[in-house]
Write a structure and sequence with these properties.
The complex is a heterotrimer. Chain A is an all-alpha fold. Chain A has one domain: MetI-like fold. Chain A contains 9 helices and no strands. Chain A is flat, with a radius of gyration of 22 Å. Chain B is mainly α. Chain B has one domain: MetI-like fold (Orthogonal Bundle). By secondary structure, chain C is of the alpha/beta class. Chain C has a 6-stranded mixed β-sheet with strand order 6-7-8-3-9-10, with helices on both faces. In chain C, α3 crosses α4 and α3 packs parallel to α5. The longest helix of chain C has 16 residues. The radius of gyration of chain C is 18 Å and the shape is globular. Chain C starts with a strand and ends with a helix. The chains are: A mainly alpha, B mainly alpha, C alpha/beta. Chains in contact: A-B, A-C. At the A-B interface, α2, α3, α7, α8 and α9 of A face α3 and α9 of B.
Chain lengths: 245, 226, 242
């Protein structure tokens, strides 16, 4: 096997003419970051809410939250994405559906991807939040209530601040996952990092360089996220608290 | 309002079943290879021989850092050529299924190895000391005492990972393989009934995965009451 | 102050409390004892509604605890409770632990709450630790802070749920001393505890529970001199041996 390595390929003008192949990669990188971060913020908010609902002493609310989590955990991400992208616009009221279908295709892809990743991830975040709350000693809730806090106040001042600290390490791994999962969105044509990598293979006939570059970009994301989350974890450490029950 | 038409499903069932068999085949191969190779990786990672543990750590961290879709693409685009040359197969042989299986197996073993490593570490240190005190070698201790206990603790996690893997097999869509999801998509596309087929596929995955995860939960309660 | 009438409670088929009746008057100190699983902790948690009960009635300072219309948070704000495992809030400093409920529940100003908190912290002998976190204190110190936290709410009565049973032996007395002082000042107290020395020193009455029932409810003199039931005699014999 003789393969002609050519790392200079990234600086060549791209097929579209107005950019280099490196420019393509950077565009994909930005898309991956932008998509993942927006979806992550939504997933955190929704996941926290659903996770809390799973622990409240109200059958209907807790049941709804359980159903939500099971629904999004037991259907493959790809299938969910296709449902958001291909099915939902058909099921919307006609005027709204048409408005969506006539919008910029990139906007359609981005919206479907963002909603999909956000809801998929929120179910996982919810599970971690629930586990965090349930791992607190039961007496903490009683102590909050015994001081005259209402249930919402007990969650806000007593349970959630501690639960979030416990949940940061597992959430780090969900945070990493959302970047990786965003690659699935290449299947509906969104030009994020993995899709750009594939384009590079098609256009440059230098598959190894392209894949190595994309892999390095994902590694860079991984290392950065872990570094930041580790610093965050150290900032929120509770003096003298060793954890556990 | 959208008018549903589910009529293309009954006729497509045999084709969908063929697809399901491919999904299950990939899942099974990847689980078996993943657990075997994952166990070896975990033992390497815990080994005191530095190069081995570095190799295992590098392998696991690399595969855990990149998206599965990318690994599958990589295997789809590059590995077939490599295999053709290696085994002298005629160019253009259909190696998509084989490469997908290899891709899944190598990728999932990174995840399995982390589960197994945690399982091994969950066995109290005193057990290894007790084995040494009885005169067992490292290999004997692992095989007879440590791994059996570790696997018992890990069974629910290994099964949960298998359910995730089964869901992930839908990603072979990128290599145009007709697994269950690929088959459903093709039928929907052909008949202009994508909406129904996608919803149907989602429902089938949900029923299978939900049932399986409930069974795992039962097992967990039965063997680890607490 | 506290009226408990015919209270029963069950989890499914399991009967936890059966027909419990007793009362605590203003300024009285009641010690509740009994073997583990006898329902004493459950009974005391019923008093401020932390545990629901199916039948009977509990009236605290004129308010019915079991009535669905009762605002339990409002009631609990004036009933102090001290827990077996202290249950300080680990993510807050000691001063925050002492002030948070004062400001958020009673609506006191920050400064007023802080003054009150520090005064009480001084009273339990821990003023020097104000800026530490719970995890940096010993068990005995944490429990004293927990008592100060409850007192900061100006409670009309105090409930103690085995306040010393999670403590190392050498720390038990520092907590009991605080409780004794409190009793001498005339606080109405209901204490679940095995500390019979404490009961002898300060209790007005002793309640002995077994299998969810109140078996004895007597003045401490009568209880210690001559327990009527065999089970109470056995319990006392075991517990007073060491």
């Amino acid at each position: 096997m003789s393969y002609q390595w050519n790392w200079g390929v990234f600086l060549q003008p791209s097929a579209s003419g107005d950019d280099t192949y490196l420019g393509w990669m950077l565009a994909g990188f930005k898309m991956t970051i932008g998509l993942s971060l927006t979806a992550w913020v939504l997933a955190l908010l929704l996941g926290a809410l659903i996770g809390v609902l799973r622990t409240v002493p109200n059958r209907a609310l807790a049941g709804f939250a359980t159903g939500y989590v099971e629904l999004f955990r037991n259907i493959p991400l790809l299938v969910q994405l296709f449902i958001w992208y291909f099915v939902l616009p058909e099921l919307l009221p006609e005027s709204l559906g048409n408005l969506y279908k006539q919008s910029n295709p990139l906007l359609q892809q981005f919206l479907a991807s963002m909603i999909c990743l956000a809801l998929f991830t929120s179910a996982r975040v919810a599970e971690q939040v629930r586990a965090g709350i349930n791992s607190l000693p039961k007496g903490q809730k009683n102590a909050g209530l015994a001081l005259g806090f209402t249930l919402p106040q007990t969650y806000r001042f007593v349970l959630l601040p501690m639960a979030f600290r416990l949940v940061v390490p597992p959430l780090t791994s969900e945070f990493l996952n959302i970047f990786k999962n965003s690659a699935v969105c290449s299947t509906i044509g969104l030009l994020e990092l993995a899709a750009q990598g594939r384009q590079l293979v098609d256009y440059t006939a230098q598959p190894y360089e392209s894949f190595i570059a994309v892999t390095l970009a994902y590694l860079l994301i991984n290392v950065t996220v872990m570094f930041l989350m580790h610093r965050f974890e150290r900032r929120i450490v509770v003096p003298g608290y060793i954890g556990g029950k | 309002m959208y008018e549903f038409d589910w009529s293309s499903i009954p006729g497509a069932l045999p084709f969908l079943w063929e697809g399901m068999k491919i999904s299950l085949e990939i899942t099974l191969t990847a689980v078996v290879i993943g657990i075997v190779w994952g166990t070896l990786l975990a033992m390497m990672r815990l080994s005191s021989f530095r190069p081995l543990s570095w190799f295992a750590a590098g392998y696991v961290n690399l595969f855990r850092a990149v998206p599965l879709v990318m690994v599958l693409l990589w295997f789809f685009l590059i590995v077939p050529k490599f295999i053709e040359q290696l085994f002298g197969l005629p160019p253009g042989s259909d190696l998509r299924l084989t490469s997908a299986m290899i891709g899944f197996a190598l990728f999932e073993s990174a995840y399995y190895s982390e589960i197994i490593r945690a399982g091994i570490q969950s066995v109290p240190k005193g057990q290894m000391a007790a084995c040494s005190a009885l005169g067992m070698t490292y290999g004997q201790a692992m095989r007879l005492v440590i791994l059996p206990q570790a696997f018992r603790n890990m069974v629910p996690l290994l099964l949960t990972q298998a359910i995730i893997l089964f869901q992930d097999t839908s990603l072979v869509y990128v290599s145009a393989l007709a697994d269950f999801f690929g088959a459903a998509y093709k039928v929907g596309d052909r008949d202009g009934r994508l909406v129904e087929m996608l919803l149907f596929a989602g429902a089938v995955y949900f029923v299978i995965c939900y049932t399986a995860s409930q069974i795992v939960k039962r097992l967990q309660k039965k063997y680890h009451p607490a | 102050m506290i009226q408990i009438s015919n209270v029963s409670k069950h989890y499914g088929a399991f009967q936890v409390l059966t027909d419990c009746t007793t009362s605590v008057s203003k300024g009285e100190v009641i010690v509740v004892c009994g073997p583990s699983g006898s329902g004493k902790s459950t009974l005391i948690k019923c008093v401020n509604g932390l545990e629901p009960f199916q039948s009977g009635e509990i009236i605290v300072n004129g308010t019915s605890v079991g009535d669905p219309k009762t605002n339990l948070s409002k009631l609990r704000a004036h009933v102090g409770m001290v827990f077996q495992n202290f249950e300080l809030f680990p993510h807050m400093s000691i001063t925050e632990n002492l002030t948070i409920a004062q400001t958020k529940v009673l609506g006191r100003g920050k400064e007023e709450a802080m003054d009150k908190g520090l005064k009480l912290l001084d009273r339990v002998g821990l003023k020097a630790h104000a800026h530490k976190f719970p995890g940096q204190l010993s068990g005995g110190q944490q429990q004293r802070v927990a008592i100060a936290r409850a007192l900061a709410m100006d409670p009309i009565c105090m409930l103690f749920d085995e306040p010393t049973s999670a403590l190392d032996p050498e720390m038990v007395n520092e907590v009991l001393d605080v409780m004794t002082e409190l009793a001498r000042e005339g606080m109405t107290m209901m204490c679940v505890t095995h500390e019979m020395g404490f009961a002898k020193r300060v209790a007005n009455r002793v309640i002995f529970m077994d299998q969810g029932r109140i078996v004895e409810d007597d003045s401490k003199e009568a209880f210690f001199a001559n327990p009527r039931s065999e089970r109470a005699q056995q319990f006392l014999a075991k517990i007073l041996h060491h």
